[in-house]
Design goal:
The complex is a heterodimer of chains A (113) and B (112). With 113 residues, chain A is mostly beta strands. Chain A is built from no helices and eleven strands. Chain A is globular, with a radius of gyration of 13 Å. In chain A, 40% of the residues are buried. Chain B is 0% helix and 54% strand. In chain B, strand 6 and strand 7 form a beta hairpin. The termini of chain B are far apart. The chains are: A mainly beta (113), B mainly beta (112). Chains A and B meet through strand 4, strand 5, strand 9 and strand 10 of A and strand 5, strand 9 and strand 10 of B.
């Protein structure tokens, strides 16, 4: 049983560019949440998707958007990249309403230069 | 926004020693969680606490949900080399909500 898988594992982008990160949830899970983890900090909640809709959002600008597909996989899109967007982006999956039982992926390390 | 203050930020101990770290908040949390993160990996759940005053163990790990619902601690007994890593507390404000608020982490280093 595969856990949460994220791709790519590492990515380097230039300021102003756009990036798409991908997440496949653990088998059976229907909810995906995205977190940003800056170096030396704890993860910060970006948003959560369930039934292909954004259900909850953290304090992140509109440059951060997402999508969930019918197979529950999800994408995180970031437009107009800033240097400060450099971070580890984590995907967590769970059953809806059971966020305390979420499983995290290994993350995508994004570097903006 | 909500913040969790986790302390200490780092710990350097000898193998076999006991470890204690804690987390406090100005907000009341419905659930407290403790995670461990190894380099290049995502956080892994160690212990989940659902009731004020609850004391829960997982092997050598013990955690408690504070009576005020604004704090929690994690103890590790008889530390071993594989305990090295970063430990995070996290809280859930609303039951059933997906959003978790994380502390800044405690980096544990063990000298053999």
């Amino acid at each position: 049983d595969a856990g949460v898988t994220q791709s790519p594992t590492h990515l380097i982008k230039t300021r102003g560019q756009q990036v798409t990160l991908r997440c496949s949830p653990k088998s059976g899970h229907d909810t995906v949440s995205w977190y940003q983890q800056a170096l030396g900090q704890g993860p910060q909640f970006i948003f959560q998707y369930y039934e292909e809709e954004e259900r909850q959002r953290g304090n992140f600008p509109d440059r951060f958007s997402g999508h969930q597909f019918p197979n529950y996989s999800s994408e995180l899109n970031v437009n107009a990249l800033l240097l400060g967007d450099s971070a580890l982006y984590l995907c967590a999956s769970s059953f809806f309403g059971r966020g305390t039982e979420a499983f995290f992926g290994q993350g995508t390390r994004l570097t903006v230069v | 926004g909500q913040q969790l203050n986790q302390s200490p930020q780092s710990m350097f101990i000898q193998e076999g020693e006991d470890v204690s770290m804690n987390c406090t908040s100005s907000s009341i949390f419905n659930t407290w969680l403790w995670y461990k993160q190894d380099p290049g990996e995502g956080p892994v759940l160690l212990i989940a606490l659902y009731k004020a005053g609850e004391l829960t163990s997982n092997g050598r790990l013990t955690a408690q949900f504070g009576i005020t619902r604004k704090d929690s601690f994690l103890n590790i007994s008889a530390s071993i080399p594989s305990d090295v890593g970063i430990y995070f507390c996290a809280g859930q404000l609303e039951q059933g909500a997906q959003k978790l608020v994380f502390g800044q982490g405690t980096r544990l280093t063990i000298n053999p």
